[in-house]
Amino acid sequence: MEIFRIIGIGLLTCIVAIIIKQIRPEFHIVVVLTGGIIILFMIIDELRTIFDYFLTVFNRTNLDYGLFSNVLKIIGVGFLTEFANNVCVDTGNASIGDKIVLAGKILIVCLALPLITDLLDVIIEILP
After folding, report:
1. DSSP track, 11-75
2. CB burial class (10 A; 0-12, 13-18, 19+) of residue 121?
3. 72 with 54: CB under 8 angstroms?
4. 77 with 107: CB under 8 angstroms?
5. How far apart are the first and last CA of the chain?
6. Do 54 and 68 meet the contact criterion of CB atoms below 8 Å apart?
7. pLDDT of 4-47, one tens digit each?
8. In a 10 Å sphere around its CB, with 0-12 CB exposed, 13-18 middle and 19+ buried, how is residue 97 labelled?
9. DSSP 2
10. What does the alpha-carbon distance between residue 50 and residue 17 come to, in Å, rounded to a whole number?
C-alpha cells in the first residue's frame, strides 16, 4: 500500500533531519522540505482522483464552473497553508506559521464569499 511508502519516507526524513541538525544545522530545513515535497509528489495521483471526482459531481449537477474553481482554490489554500505552517513550526518559527494560518483563513473566507452569495440566492428562491 502507498501509505507504507509515504510513512517510510516520512520517518526516514525525520531520522535524517535529526542527524543533519546535529552535524550541519543549516541543512536541516532543506532535508525537511525535500522530504515533504517527495511525499507531495507521491500523492499527486490521489489528488488527481479527487479533482476528477469533483469535476464529475459538478458536471452532473450543471453547476457553474466558477463555483467548482472556487471550491478547489479553497481546498488548495487550506492544504498549502497547513503545509507552510508546519514547515515554520519545524524550523522554530511558530509565530510566522500563525500569521500564515491567519492569512490562509482570510483568503478562504474571501474565496467563499461567492459561494455564500449563491447559497443565499438559492435559499431566497426556495422561501415563499
Report:
1. HHHHHHHHHHHHH-GGGHHHHHHHHHHHHHHHTHHHHHHHHHHHHHHHHHHT--HHHHHHHHHHH
2. exposed
3. yes
4. yes
5. 53
6. yes
7. 999 999 999 999 999 998 999 889 889 988 998 999 899 998 88
8. buried
9. H
10. 31
The label of the residue with cell 490562509 reads 104
The model's pTM: 0.73
Q: What is the C-alpha to C-alpha distance for residues 41 and 32, in angstroms, rounded to an integer?
A: 14
Sole residue written with cell 422561501: 127
Is residue 76 within 8 A of residue 46, CB to CB? The reply is no
Dist CA 38 CA 98 (whole Å)? 25
Residues 6+ apart with CB under 8 A from 36: 13, 83, 86, 87
CA distances from 43 to 46, 51, 117 (A): 5, 12, 33
